[in-house]
Amino acid sequence: MLNIISLFKQLIKCPSLSPLDSGCQIIINNRLKKIGFNIKYININKTINTWAYRGVGKNLLFAGHTDVVSSGNINNWITLPFIPILKKKKIFGRGSADMKGSLAAIIIAIENFIKYNPNHKGQISLILTSDEESDATDGTIKVIKKLKKIKKKIDYCIIGEPSSKKYIGDNIKNGRRGSLNVNLIIYGKQGHIAYPNLAKNPIHESNNFIKNLILNKWGYKNIIFEPTILQISNIYTDNINNLNNIIPNKININFNLRFNNEININKIINEIKIMLINNNLKYYMKWKILGKPFYTNKNNLLDIIKKSIYLYNKKYPKISTEGGTSDGRFIYKICKQIVELGLKNKTIHKFNEYINIIELKKLSVIYQNIIKNILL
Asked: Is 131 in the active site?
């Protein structure tokens, strides 16, 4: 398993800030070619995408991303973000947990499986993208569109997103809530701050609406999903010079809703419009659906993964649909059995992101056991 550390360090050294890949997929694909994979690049704008496959028949897909979020101020790191350093069985580096560690674990698992089972049944495939952490407009969504066009169907899909909490495999995900971004402009009337009677302050005018927005019960949780929640991400005005003697002309409010299957987009938008009308606000609103809720019910893949995890942990994993969106929302169009299983999510997107090498090796062994149980 020493090979896994070498591969992992190679990937960390690639400064693949989304949507850049910076050579990660070349490293991975060169290894896959050596064990008989067909490699097809589906590159769009700055995004690098890979569709790789080996064999025919029942299909097991591994999906992941090579891009990472910004490392932020490097002075807040104990190591350089793209120089993998080993300290007390931990390797630090941006993207180590999310999700270059899982990618290394997947590749080593596949290599080891094929080494002992070169004539395996079925098909192993991979979708890799460098556009998961940013807009996700040129990545997996475009690969799935091409696969759907040729009527490609996937039987099983494992996404290597960091799903574990306290130990590897304690938590897996079989679905996610949908995500809706709303950009709202509320108009007032610009004027001198000393003469509010001659102006209309959109900040003051929208105060009650914002309170309604926050306190509104958008939906309740059910046996599958957490409740629908709303979070405001930004509020700003057109007072770009930050002058303290101007009442602004408009206020911009950006917010997101993570919604479950108890509510639909039309209902959400209608409720927001009613709040705006009730507060006599002049507004402009646009919204974008980043993904709809998806859910994998009890099935073969879930059972196989649970048993594989139990084999090494002597405990079954908790199954949840918590967290943000993932590329599973796109893959669901051609595969109805999707499970997310990866490293611990404790340090993802944080300064000093790291993984434990023992946990990395363990994850790879679990992946290998899952492959064996599906394709043998």
From this structure: no
